[in-house]
Amino acid sequence: MSNGKSKFTWNNLPSETDTVTIYFEDAPCEVPSGVTVAAALLGHDDNHFCRSAAKQEKRAPYCLMGVCFECLVEIDGIKNRQACLEPVREGMHVKRQHTLVDEKK
Which residues of the chain carry a pLDDT beneath 50? Predict the structure, then answer.
């Protein structure tokens, strides 16, 4: 995670804090257990989770309570997951989602 000015960085955690390793865009990230995917990724350097379906604008969490759908990601191959409602778990794979529609390959 980022070492910038974000208060959501997870470096130098107290030794008693349990952590899990998740993978964001295939890069391992050690984050505190018990937080949501959105909270875990807020400190990421790219500052966005997905792109809007209409204009392809970068999107990041907004409401953090499941109302706005600005934090949609793909988790373990399942699209349209709200990062703000999903708790992290060991080995979870999270990818950015670029549209709301599941595109055929």
Answer: 1-7, 102, 105
